């Protein structure tokens, strides 16, 4: 019997776990490093080597454990920034954004729609899908999440060119270029009639990787909003066309064979982004076999880093206002702390580059997914003030999602003509449909 526990992110008080689920929850919480669960897809860490530490995040942390005869009989589960679905055996955990309708103790009403999480995914991955309410069970919702990722991962991979690799082709003619196949020559060309059987290694676009992508495309077509995913924009349409043209040998009957040849990740010195796409395609095509409970004690699911998702979502809004997204996790587009630097100086080595989340002209903005209504932490405050001082910015602020209780606040710094601002972003909580939620949150985006 499948059991689903519905939680919300960043709930530190702890949610009581039903006794029958405790053994499975203990195993999920004990993973520690997410990289130890190969069937658990975590975004963005699984797809690129961002040095943001997400691979070391815990899915759940446990508190208030009580034991009887050496067995844990009572425990509470706390959540952090990770959202999505994870399961083991007959137990699954659905971690929603904290902006869904809630019951007590951080437990989400099973009938509630997580409009905010879906909306951020749509904005970040540029997916124009509006009717998401058909997804009523956990497997459908996991597939929804996987499909959201496909167009972006396809674009990243295809931007490096259509994948090609050496493939051995067999020929039997008079233009010998390659290794003569003696067995085939004896079988086919004796008595000699001017032809020689040989094998030649050639670059081919019709290979196991492009075939895997083609099978994934054909699979997505049959999803309720699959066509919307594949026809989302002109770039996606063009790349799908190129994959189809490159795989003339495609056959539905070959799907399991293609999957088996792609169980191990491809390592190519140039087509690096295809490894990420390959991993996603395998998860999509193996979706039916990854349902919880099919393999004992094996963790499955798909998770998103809420802090990363919130920051990328804000970028879709702030870039229209000419803010630079410094992408501090991968050390790009920052600015110098020191005007002049010397490689041999301890203090100014490498010019001590700074990477605020967002900046422009006279403004520094820090994206915070965590609660800020109770105050800004000392380290967060010092960090923004440092960014302001080194860039001569008069204004610095924090943008965080809010349930409606926060208000805009301004604080003038002593000894420096600067201001710290708190900008709560009010997330709609009582929308009765996805369309209504979109309308309400677009008004907040304008504000």
Describe the structure.
The protein is an alpha+beta fold and 447 residues long. It folds into three domains: 3-161 and 207-308, no CATH class; 165-204, no CATH class; 322-446, no CATH class. It has helices at residues 22-29, 115-124, 138-158, 182-189, 208-220, 226-230, 234-246, 255-261, 273-285, 306-318, 378-391, 434-446; strands spanning 3-8, 15-16, 40-43, 61-68, 71-78, 82-88, 91-96, 165-173, 179-180, 196-204, 300-305, 324-325, 335-336, 353-354, 358-360, 363-367, 395-402, 409-412, 419-426. Helix 3 packs antiparallel against helix 9 (273-285) and helix 5 packs across helix 7 (234-246).
Q: What oligomerization state is this entry in?
A: single chain
Strand order of the largest sheet: 12-15-16-17-19-18
Report the radius of gyration as a whole number of Å: 26 Å
Anisotropy-based shape: globular
Mean pLDDT: 81
Helical content, roughly? 25-40%
Work out the number of β strands: 19
């Amino acid at each position: 019997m499948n059991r689903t526990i519905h939680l919300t992110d960043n709930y530190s008080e702890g949610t009581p776990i039903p006794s029958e689920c405790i053994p499975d929850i203990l195993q999920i919480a004990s993973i520690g490093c997410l990289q130890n669960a190969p069937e658990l897809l975590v975004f963005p860490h699984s797809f690129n080597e961002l040095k943001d530490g997400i691979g070391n995040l815990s899915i759940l942390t446990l508190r208030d454990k009580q034991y009887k005869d050496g067995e844990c009989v009572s425990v509470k589960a706390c959540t952090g920034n990770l959202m999505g679905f994870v399961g083991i055996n007959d137990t699954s955990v659905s971690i929603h954004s904290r902006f869904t309708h809630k019951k007590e103790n951080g437990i989400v009403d099973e009938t509630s729609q997580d409009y905010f999480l879906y909306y951020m995914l749509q904005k970040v991955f540029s997916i124009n899908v509006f009717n998401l309410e058909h997804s009523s069970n956990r497997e459908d919702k996991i597939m929804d999440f996987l499909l959201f990722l496909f167009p972006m991962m396809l674009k990243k991979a295809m931007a490096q060119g259509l994948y090609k690799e050496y493939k051995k082709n067999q020929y039997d003619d008079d233009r010998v270029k390659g290794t003569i196949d003696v067995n085939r020559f004896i079988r086919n060309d004796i008595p000699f009639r001017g032809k020689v059987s040989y094998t030649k290694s050639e670059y081919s676009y019709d290979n196991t990787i492009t075939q895997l992508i083609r099978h994934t495309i054909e699979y997505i077509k049959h999803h309720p909003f699959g066509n919307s995913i594949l026809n989302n924009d002109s770039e996606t349409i063009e790349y799908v066309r190129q994959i189809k043209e490159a795989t003339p040998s495609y056959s539905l009957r070959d799907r399991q064979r293609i999957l088996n040849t792609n169980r191990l990740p491809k390592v190519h010195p140039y087509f690096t982004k295809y490894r990420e796409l390959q991993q996603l395609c395998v998860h999509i095509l193996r979706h039916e076999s990854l349902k919880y409970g099919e393999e004992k004690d094996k963790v499955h699911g798909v998770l998103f880093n809420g802090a990363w998702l919130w920051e990328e979502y804000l970028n879709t809004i702030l870039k229209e206002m000419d803010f630079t997204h410094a992408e501090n996790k991968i050390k790009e587009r920052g600015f110098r702390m020191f005007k002049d630097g010397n490689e041999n100086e301890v203090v100014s080595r490498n010019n001590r580059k700074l990477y605020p989340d967002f900046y422009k002209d006279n403004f520094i903005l820090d994206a915070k997914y965590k609660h800020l209504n109770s105050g800004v932490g000392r380290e967060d405050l010092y960090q923004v003030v440092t960014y302001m001082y080194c860039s001569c910015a008069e204004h610095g602020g924090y943008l965080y999602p809010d349930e409606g209780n926060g208000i805009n606040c301004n604080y003038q710094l002593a000894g420096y003509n600067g201001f710290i601002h708190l900008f709560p972003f009010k997330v709609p909580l009582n929308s009765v449909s996805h369309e209504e939620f979109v309308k309400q949150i677009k008004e907040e985006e304008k504000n």
